[in-house]
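**Sequence with structure:**
===
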Amino acid sequence: MTTRRTPKLDRYRATRPWGKDYWRRARCDEVACPRHIMGFEVVVPIGSDKDLYIRNAMNPMRTREGRSILHFTTKEEVGIVTFAFPPGQQCFNEHLLPIEREPIFLHKVGTQPRVMDFPDFMGEFNESAYRLQEARKRG
């Protein structure tokens, strides 16, 4: 009886860790946000913090004169209000874009990741892919 040896699984990944060193805040139009393109609605209870946030001066999206830079229509029903925002406005989600910086290249065998520079990363990745292809050919 022969035992079949299973090769170690190598994992290669180019990544950008979370944080200000690799990401920056972005506007809706920079990331093609669907809410920015098509418009959106927000439904909240009347008198709630979110209702007051959108309606009054606590809203940071105001000009120096105190006018809101948000454009919306409201529709009030029993206990709830629907704010309808037309296309072309910033939504309330936070969008991020990667900073023009090289990602971190990781090679992981088992549980320990190893940070590598790009040439070494590509060399080991290619060798690993070749070994895997040869193992598949052998069966």
User: Anything to note?
Assistant: The chain has a mean pLDDT of 81.
